[in-house]
User: Which sequence fits this backbone?
């Protein structure tokens, strides 16, 4: 399929996963992510996707993530999708999956919190996704799409990363990127074969048995395990950072934003550029590993950063870590499902620029 | 090698080495029926010739370390979630034989939903429940199966069912679910016999349990969900001498939890 199609972000993500040769999907419904399982349920059995062998609706978020872990233990491409309150329930499983080094995909179409919040877009799960919402020293690889096009293309990248590093991967959409309809082109994908023969549980036939576990009672043995995980995370930090840096080479002021809010920020950057401002957009695509080096590079020119998020200030902390005091970092956020307008962001940017001149 | 370990190896040699077991001696307390269950499951796997396509899902509790003993592939699951992991694996690799060993806390408190839904779906997996009426590994707290009046560390004055609700009958519960295929309750505790030549032990219970375990695997391979509840003792946490604890299983626990076949949808016991 290379023709242009017009569809919702959630549908695009489902088809993106199918084109990446998804084997198993375990579902639990939650707004605003439910079009993902609905689309996959509809396509289940379609001969176009011969690898798609299992679609099963679970009785709870806990059951769904553990089923994904079971299927991933068998070395297959398994995933589930949820939204913020459901993502909280996934944390136990994700901590285990990281400890067990299971390659799997969890999609979080984020909504308002805390608690039941609402079903409108927020980006307030940033800390939970990037800093480890479960217990123990672990990381998820977190990919943040800002368009329906990226919702379609990231599942393939997510599975590649998951199997390359044997680590759970999270795609962090939001209620907007999930519900938004745009026209897109599906990239032609050559699905990768993953070698799982050294670890997957397939029955110990003609080989030593495989044990997939996060459990080591012996402190020496467990220390080795946690240290090797940490080395893996460091290698991911070195090799897998992704971001978009838009008109930042000469930028004196940089707007940093991810997901849907970065789209609004981009319009503001275009508008202010036309008026002669040296402004650019920095958009992390991997929220973890966070592109700290790029932030550091940007501070060579930029002495003012405006971080725009749909929360009360979360990614701003990582921007500050990257800036290391070399620039001023301001935050502008909206919560509850409200979006910042271009005018609001423009005003925030202007007042920051004016301060830059008078400073 | 300690004296105990070498003694155990001798004993094992006498019983004959099972390919489905590793050489590692178990960590289970002396007299604990977990050891029996380990041996019985391994011999069932061997008798059925399924070792190379069997995967055990460890639960959290005394059997969390069972990957050291069974010479099969393992996945060590979160507390209560073994049936969900088993379901996910079995769905993508239906050619495998997948079983769990779960305690009463794991399967009937934190993991009751997962057990019930595996049964509701008729998921072809085998669950071996060790019901010893207490949380063993965490040190003797009240379990869903703790008897009325039973003293545990969280019911130091005896379990008051007016407060906690009554003991849960897992076999009755699961047999009532349409999707379950084989539900059986056995005792893993040996009984003492007084013979003319002195004290001896009857292993009738063990032989019945062995048959039930084989049946459970067979039912799974016929496409059914199977569940064997194994009444066991925990003398350490019950604070009883070993043989008194075993007597308690066969005299007292069986009153609350009668032994027998609760469901046999496939007629496996008649075959």
Assistant:
């Amino acid at each position: 399929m290379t023709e242009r199609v017009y569809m919702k972000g959630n549908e695009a993500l489902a088809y993106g996963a199918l084109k990446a040769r998804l084997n198993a999907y375990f579902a639990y419904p939650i707004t605003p992510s439910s079009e993902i399982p609905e689309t996959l349920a509809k396509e289940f059995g379609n001969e176009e996707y011969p690898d798609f062998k299992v679609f099963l609706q679970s009785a709870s978020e806990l059951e769904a993530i553990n089923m994904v872990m079971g299927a991933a233990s068998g070395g297959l491409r398994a995933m589930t999708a949820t939204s913020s309150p459901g993502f909280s329930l996934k944390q136990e499983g994700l901590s285990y999956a990281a400890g067990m080094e299971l390659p799997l995909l969890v999609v979080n179409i984020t909504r308002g919190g805390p608690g039941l919040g609402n079903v409108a877009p927020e980006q307030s799960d940033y800390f939970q996704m990037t800093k480890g919402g479960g217990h123990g020293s672990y990381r998820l690889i977190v990919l943040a799409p800002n368009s329906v096009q990226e919702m379609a293309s990231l599942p393939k990248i997510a599975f590649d990363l998951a199997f390359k590093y044997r680590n759970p991967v999270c795609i962090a959409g939001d209620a907007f990127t999930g519900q938004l309809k745009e026209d897109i082109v599906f990239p032609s994908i050559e699905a990768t074969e993953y070698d799982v023969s050294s670890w997957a549980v397939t029955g110990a036939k003609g080989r030593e048995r495989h044990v997939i576990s996060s459990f080591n009672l012996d402190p020496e043995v467990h220390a080795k395990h946690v240290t090797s995980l940490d080395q893996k995370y460091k290698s991911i930090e070195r090799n897998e950072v992704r971001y978009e840096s838009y008109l930042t080479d000469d930028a004196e002021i940089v707007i940093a934003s991810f997901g849907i809010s970065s789209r609004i920020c981009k319009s503001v950057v275009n508008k202010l550029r036309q008026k002669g401002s040296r402004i650019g957009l920095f958009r992390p695509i991997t929220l973890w590993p966070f592109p700290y080096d790029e932030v550091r590079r940007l501070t060579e020119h930029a002495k003012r950063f405006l971080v725009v998020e749909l929360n009360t200030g979360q990614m701003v902390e990582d921007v500050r870590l990257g800036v290391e005091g070399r620039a001023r970092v301001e935050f502008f956020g909206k919560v509850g499902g409200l979006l910042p307008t271009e005018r609001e962001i423009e005003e925030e940017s202007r007042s920051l620029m004016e301060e830059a001149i008078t400073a | 090698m300690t004296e105990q370990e070498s003694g155990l190896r001798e004993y094992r040699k006498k019983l004959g080495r099972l390919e489905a077991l590793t050489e590692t001696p178990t960590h289970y307390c002396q007299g604990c029926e977990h050891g029996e269950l380990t041996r019985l499951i391994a011999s069932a796997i061997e008798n059925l010739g399924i070792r190379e396509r069997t995967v055990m899902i460890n639960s959290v509790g005394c059997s969390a370390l069972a990957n050291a003993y069974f010479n099969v592939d393992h996945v060590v699951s979160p507390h209560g979630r073994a049936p969900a992991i088993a379901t996910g694996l079995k769905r993508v690799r239906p050619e495998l034989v997948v079983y769990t060993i779960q305690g009463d806390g794991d399967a009937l408190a934190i993991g009751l939903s997962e057990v019930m839904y595996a049964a509701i779906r008729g998921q072809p997996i085998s669950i071996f429940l060790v019901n010893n009426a207490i949380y063993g590994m965490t040190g003797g707290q009240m379990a869903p199966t703790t008897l009325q009046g039973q003293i545990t560390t969280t019911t130091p004055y005896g379990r008051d069912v007016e407060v906690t609700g009554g003991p849960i009958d897992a076999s009755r519960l699961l047999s009532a679910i349409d999707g379950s295929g084989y539900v059986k309750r056995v005792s893993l505790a040996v009984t003492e016999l007084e013979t003319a030549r002195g004290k001896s032990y009857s292993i009738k219970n063990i032989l019945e349990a062995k048959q039930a375990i084989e049946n459970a695997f067979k039912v799974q391979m016929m496409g059914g969900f199977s569940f064997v509840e194994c009444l066991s003792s925990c003398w350490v946490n019950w604070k009883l001498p070993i043989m008194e604890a075993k007597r308690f299983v066969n005299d007292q626990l069986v009153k609350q939890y009668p032994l027998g076949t609760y469901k046999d949808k496939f007629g496996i016991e008649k075959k």
In short: The interface with chain A takes residues 51-55, 57-58, 64-65, 67, 71-78, 81, 84-93, 95-96, 113-114, 117 of chain B (CB under 8 Å). Residues 5 and 25 of chain B are 6 Å apart (CA to CA). The mean pLDDT of chain B is 95. The longest strand of chain B covers residues 180-187.
